[in-house]
Design a protein that fits this description.
single chain, about 240 residues, alpha+beta, Bactericidal permeability-increasing protein, domain 1, about 30% helix
Length: about 240
């Protein structure tokens, strides 16, 4: 009898223990790509939208630097700034992840505006009566945001976009500043300080941090136009 019981256990165990099978979102990578395409369409060829919703506020910063015998100490004002161009908007694939549980499914990734170019009129008032004006073109490698899309099962899709900061592209610098006119020693020192001094550029950063608001508007518009992925319950 004991042998029969053991034999029955060996026979019945595989029949009654079913391994857990997880569900997954179908083609969610392609879904996120389409959402980004719709976000770009929201901004593309819409100068009025850009001018109204991507502000570049006037700001002031203090400079105190010396290089090779040239000194710049005083105030630098950034005026009449505007967003000139964005090279591309991307989701780096390694940053993308999707998840699903009994309550909801969601996707999260890093959203990057790459090659962001901003123009400023700059006025500087430095020690030794060094005053002047210049036009600056500042190109950032990327402005980065956290993108999240979530849906409780059988409910509406929701999203958030949160500003993360500036990515220097691994060059050890915040962005590439280019003076267009003039190219004096004082302007060169300001250029170098923009690239290397985080405290000097903090006022400029506050403007870029506001851009999550219009981008979040574009994201919410995009998720209304792209069908949310289906769930495959048997992966």
């Amino acid at each position: 009898m004991y042998c029969k019981i053991v034999n029955c256990a060996h026979i019945l165990l595989p029949l009654f223990i079913i391994p857990f099978v997880g569900a997954r979102l179908v083609d969610s990578n392609n879904y996120v790509d389409k959402v980004v395409e719709q976000m770009v369409a929201c901004m593309d060829n819409n100068r009025k939208f850009i001018d109204k919703n991507f502000p570049v506020d006037d700001c002031e910063s203090t400079i105190n630097t010396t290089r090779y015998g040239q000194t710049a100490i005083g105030k630098v004002e950034f005026r009449s700034g505007f967003l000139a161009s964005i090279d591309s908007a991307i989701i780096p694939k390694p940053t993308y992840h999707d998840y699903i549980n009994n309550k909801q499914s969601w996707m999260e990734a890093e959203f990057k505006l790459c090659g962001v170019t901003v123009f400023y009129d700059v006025h500087y008032n430095l020690e030794d009566n060094k005053k002047g004006d210049a036009t600056f073109r500042v190109k950032y490698d990327s402005v980065d945001f956290d993108l999240n899309i979530v849906r409780e099962h059988n409910a509406e899709v929701k999203s958030t976009l949160i500003y993360r900061g500036i990515n220097s592209g691994g060059r050890g610098q915040w962005g590439t500043a280019v003076t267009t006119h003039p190219n004096t020693p004082q302007v060169q020192l300001i250029t170098n300080t923009i690239r290397s001094d985080s405290h000097f550029r903090d006022p400029l950063m506050k403007t870029l941090a506001q851009w999550n608001l219009p981008l979040d508007m574009c994201l919410k518009e995009a998720i209304q136009k792209v069908e949310y992925p289906e769930i495959n319950y048997l992966q």
